[in-house]
Every structure is written in structure tokens, then in C-alpha cells.
Write a structure and sequence with these properties.
By secondary structure, the protein is mainly β. It has 2 helices and 20 strands. Strands 1, 2, 3, 4, 5, 6 and 7 form a 7-stranded antiparallel beta sheet that branches. Strands 16, 17, 18, 19 and 20 form a 5-stranded antiparallel beta sheet that branches. Strand 19 and strand 20 form a beta hairpin. It starts with 5 loop residues before the first strand and ends in an 11-residue tail after the last strand.
């Protein structure tokens, strides 16, 4: 196994730090010599390595921390931010110091990749785990990493308000693709309240949703409310956009949901199907 690098997931940026997640899914270079195999066939799952977080100083490039946790596989992060241990929500407020808080979608292993083969897409018989929204707190002083599941719901392509993400601030709400128990495909949209653990969902029979995008409200009144200290309650003021594919009508539509109630506000129907991409927008 040596020093083979694992697959790195999407990374997040804090004000002063980069946060990368390295999956224990490593390449065997000799397998790339087989023309009859796909790219992913050259990779091997090594759970004994654990999953490694790498925290880098944005200015110097130096490694600030690189803790390992029990193995999981991830594609996408929702957000990351730095939090003092004396702040509300911190796992441990003793001794001062700060943590990097990372919210991401985690799988038990890399078997989820097998479900992306054409022969398996659309099958509900896959043994692959469903992605769950997890939060990891990474102590910058080398302390113990803590992790927890934020909600009991299958989710992928997690998104937070860009007003929060670009400001590198803590978030409360995460939007994403979901799936029902009976169908492992993207036939649901979900909104997760990471503080309360509540989940709101939207689904229609025979309709499949793309990655949602949250658009903050430009209303100045909301900005005033935020300035008055009610920012966490106003984080979800805006609309959620998603392109839907109706397989019965054989056409697509752009749907706009209320960011707070998660109810449909508008639907623009397209008289043809829009091919699905991996990401939404």
C-alpha cells in the first residue's frame, strides 16, 4: 500500500484554512495498464487507513492538522467553518481553543460507485449505503475528533445559502437531493435543519430532481433582520431552484420552492426533456 494517495473529496475553505478530506480509496497503478477496465477499477478500498482530514494554512500552505477517523467515503462537503469551543454548539467548551466544523455527505464505503454503472442505475437492489449528512469537529490542537449524524435522511449534493458559504460562517440549513426508501434514485428534494434535526421533503410520483440551488432573497428587510441579530432565523429566506424530469410526460421543468416553508412557489414547464448532468447549476 505504501504512500499511495487516496481520492480527495471536494474541499472547503475557511477564512484562513483549507479543509480537504482524503478517502481511503487508493489507486493501484498497474491496473491502469488494462485497457478493458474502467478508471475506477484501478482503485482499492482500504478501510484500515481510515479517512483523513487535512487542514492547511491558506497563506503558508503548512499542514495545521491531519486527524484520521474511522473509514467513510465522501463526494461532497456542505460547508466548513472555524468555531471557538466557547461558542454555542461546540462539543467541548473546556480549555479554550477552536475546531474546524465540517458538514459533508458520508457513505459507509466506496460501494456507492458501483451503483453508477449503467447496468445498476435505476435498480433498487443495490447494497450500497445511502449518503447521510454528518458533522465532524476537528480540534486544531490535536484533540479527539468528534462526529455525528445530523439527520435520518438519505441525501447528496448538499448545498447551503451562498450568503453563508461565501462569508465562511456557520450554517443551519442544508438542501440536497434525496431518495425515498422504495427508490434509490434522485426522486426527492430535502431540507435539513442541522440544529433541530428536522427534515422537510418534496417529491412527486415519476419526477426526478437535479441538484438544488439556493438563491438568497435580496429583500432589504431581511438584511435588517439579520443585522438585528436574527440572522440564523433568516438564513433560509430565499428560493430553492431545481430542474425536474417528468418521465411520464417526457418533459422537464424548473421548479422554485420557498426556502423556509419548502413549498412550491412557481413552475416553468419546458416542452422537452433536459438531459441530467452530474451537478445541477
Amino acid at each position: 500500500m505504501g504512500r499511495r494517495a487516496g481520492v480527495h473529496a471536494q474541499f472547503r475553505v475557511d477564512r484562513a484554512l483549507w479543509v480537504l478530506t482524503e478517502n481511503p480509496f487508493t489507486a493501484n497503478p498497474l491496473r491502469f495498464l488494462h485497457p478493458d477496465r474502467s478508471f475506477v477499477d484501478a482503485y482499492e478500498w482500504h478501510p484500515e487507513r481510515g479517512t483523513r482530514f487535512v487542514v492547511l494554512d491558506r497563506t503558508t500552505g503548512e499542514v495545521v492538522a491531519e486527524p484520521r477517523v474511522p473509514a467513510f467515503f465522501t463526494f461532497h462537503h456542505a460547508n466548513a467553518f472555524e468555531r471557538e469551543r466557547t461558542e454555542a454548539g461546540a462539543e467541548d467548551d473546556s480549555g479554550g481553543g477552536s475546531d474546524i466544523v465540517v458538514d459533508l455527505v458520508a457513505y459507509d464505503d466506496a460501494d456507492v460507485l458501483d451503483g453508477l454503472y449503467l447496468d445498476d442505475i435505476g435498480s433498487s437492489a443495490s447494497d450500497a449505503s445511502t449518503g447521510e449528512l454528518r458533522q465532524y469537529c476537528l480540534p486544531l490542537d490535536g484533540g479527539r475528533v468528534t462526529g455525528r449524524t445530523l439527520a435520518d435522511v438519505g441525501i447528496e449534493f448538499p448545498r447551503v445559502s451562498p450568503a453563508v458559504a461565501t462569508a465562511m460562517e456557520p450554517h443551519r440549513y442544508v438542501y440536497g437531493q434525496g431518495d425515498t426508501d422504495a427508490d434509490r434514485n434522485a426522486n426527492e428534494l430535502v431540507k435539513v435543519d442541522t440544529e433541530a434535526g428536522d427534515v422537510q421533503t418534496w417529491a412527486e410520483r415519476g419526477v426526478y430532481a437535479s441538484e438544488p440551488t439556493f438563491m438568497p432573497s435580496p429583500d432589504e428587510e431581511n438584511e435588517d433582520d439579520t443585522a438585528a441579530g436574527d440572522g440564523i432565523a433568516r438564513e433560509d429566506d430565499g428560493v430553492v431552484l431545481s430542474i425536474l424530469l417528468d418521465i411520464d410526460a417526457e418533459r422537464s421543468a424548473l421548479l422554485a420552492f420557498d426556502g423556509r416553508s419548502f413549498e412550491e412557489r412557481a413552475r416553468a414547464i419546458v416542452p422537452h426533456s433536459i438531459p441530467f448532468g452530474f451537478h445541477g447549476w
